[in-house]
Specification:
This protein is mostly helical. The protein has 4 helices and no strands.
């Protein structure tokens, strides 16, 4: 009975959680915007994290575009 908690995967809070709406808005407005440019915009808005975590976040948000 007490072991049920051990099987649930807890998600750690991310520094990007509060910036998710802004990221989505930038991608919608500028579909070809680079991760570096998004990073610059977020830094101006108060983001204190690194670009690596942002790039991982973007992989989940952006569709995969296959090239022939």
């Amino acid at each position: 009975m007490g072991h049920e908690v051990l099987t649930k995967k807890l998600r750690r809070a991310s520094k990007l959680d509060g910036f998710d709406p802004e990221i989505k808005k930038l991608i919608e407005k500028y579909p070809k915007i680079t991760g570096v440019r998004i990073y610059e915009e977020l830094k101006e808005a108060g983001y204190s994290g690194g670009i690596s975590i942002l790039r991982e976040w973007l992989k989940k948000l952006r569709p995969v575009i296959e090239t022939p």
